[in-house]
Amino acid sequence: MGCNGCRHRRRAAPIDIAYGGCRYVDSCRLAAFFGLTERRAVRRCLMDIKRMKIGILVAGDLSQERKLRFGTLATMFETLLSSVEPELIYQDYDVFKDVFPTDPQECDGWLITGSYHSAYEDLPWMLRLQAFIRETLDANIPMIGICFGHQIMAQALGGRVEREASGKWGAAVNTYKLDGGAGEFPSWMSSDSTQISLQASHQDQVTILPTNAKLLGGNDFCPNGILSYGNTGFSMQLHPELSSDFIRDVFETRRGDVMSEEETDLVLEKVDLPVDSPLAGRWMVDFFKLNQP
After folding, report:
1. Which PANTHER family does the record associate with it (predicted)?
2. Residue 168: exposed, middle, or buried by beta-carbon count in 10 A (0-12, 13-18, 19+)?
3. Which of 39, 40, 113, 188 sits most deeply, having the most CB atoms within 10 A of its CB?
4. Which helix (H) or strand (E) holds 218?
5. Do the Cβ atoms of 51 and 88 come closer than 8 Å?
6. 53-289 fold
7. What does the pLDDT read at residue 45?
8. What is the average pLDDT across 202-209?
9. Each residue's pLDDT tens digit, 123-145
10. Long-range CB contacts (< 8 A, 24+ apart) of 120-127?
């Protein structure tokens, strides 16, 4: 039965207690709380009953040694998201091997991983991925991009991605100031936090925003660090899925090669700083749940 006994009580469905103070919130109250149409509110409630399927668009590979130690790019995201919502199910697509979904409707939401590639390489699979990004957002299916995923989403939608001019790295734990700009933060991003700290490993970054992008956060090194695209796209340069041990391993292998000894030591001093991965994981799950078409 609905919380307020209204005429929509038969549509009541369990949702997270953070969404209104009750385990059961009827569709009309949910709609009022989030500013949704009743149809979308009902759909969002039903998603709590149905096991939501997330398609992971894998944009690169790891060495066998790293996969044995840390898991794959896909399983690291699955671990993060399942720590927030254990009922999620996943389907992985190795898009870097040209393995793609046939239709955006195959999954309830999509996530693009990081990669050792650069978005501006314009490899054939990247061009196909950019077309899929546009098709997915046009179909109002929610999509998240992380690191390379953040960059390729921006590029697909008319933005620009470039390597940092001086060759500097965004490395280890970086902190982004959160800023909703002239408008409020999206409902799925609700938090009292004014900043977020997560692991980073990049030189490339989004330098020109797509016209439909909203800037939500960044820092001096990477001003365009967190973006949203209406109710269907969310992307972030930082890595909520990566552990300190993973980042330490990555930058140790760069010591004396792409980074000097001194630069590497400075990175490793920051690798064990506190991170906000649980907060980022909550944002991601809520984004998927609240933005079903």
Report:
1. GLUTAMINE AMIDOTRANSFERASE YLR126C-RELATED
2. exposed
3. 113
4. strand 214-218
5. yes
6. Rossmann fold (3.40.50)
7. 52
8. 97
9. 999 999 999 999 999 999 999 99
10. 120/155, 120/161, 120/162, 120/204, 124/98, 125/95, 125/96, 125/97, 125/98, 126/152
